[in-house]
Structure formats: structure tokens, C-alpha cells
Amino acid sequence: MDTLRDKGNINNSGTMKQIFINLPVKDVDASMNFYKQLGFTVNPLFTFDNQKCMVWTDHIYVMLQTLEMSKTGEKKNIADPKKNRIATFTLPVESLDKVNEIMEKGLKAGGTEPTKLMDEGFMQIRNIEDLDGHNWGIIFLDIEKFKTMTGK
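RE: above sequence
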């Protein structure tokens, strides 16, 4: 049976090799439903009334937290992502069709598309903002075209 270490999820010091992105949201249940439409799944181990754990891959988790939970122990104000540019995130997928499929589901679930499709020939990217204004790029990168173009 594979262990977390065998799968590369835990390094030699016993630390998990994953990223947890904590996002403050106004309505965790509505946000959870939005992220499900993008293709995330719920991890019940880290999911509670004030926090929903959404999984993109074995290594990428998004923690949707109530504003109250996000403020706990924090001295800084939480920026409103609908009014302020904060961190943006990119989710790579296997094809342009998959980019479009995810975007259509996200738009139907209440997301907005702040910019048009960017097509660089080797890469296509569409941006979607979630219900709270957090920005996600859904990207397809044809790595072979990229290598040819850059000579690498």
C-alpha cells in the first residue's frame, strides 16, 4: 500500500508537501458550491462550519474561511478582492477545451470573467473571479510548443 511519503506528499523530515491557500469569503457554503463547479472536491477532514477545505490536487488545497475566522488573531485588515488587487492564482489544465469547460461552469455558478481569453499560441488563459472577487487563471500550456518557441 502506498504511503503519503511514497506518493511524495511528505518529505524526509515528515512534513507534508502541500499548499493550503486560505481565502476569506462572505458565504462559505455558496463559495464551496462555486469551487465544486470549477472541479474542486471537498476534503471533509479539514471542513467545518466556518471553513470548507476544497481540493484541486493532492498538493493544492483552498481553505474557504468565514471573514470572522480569517480575522482571528490577525491585526491587519482583510482587503476586499472586489476592490483591491491581491494575490492571483493559476490552475493548469490539460486542454483548451478543459479551460472553456471550467470557465462555463464557473460563470454559471456566479463567477465573472474580468478579461478576455489570452492566446499566446503556446498558451491560452482565461480568468475568472469567484463570488468574493478572488482571481483564478485557468490555463492550458502546450509545453512542446513553448519549448520550440523558446529553444529550451
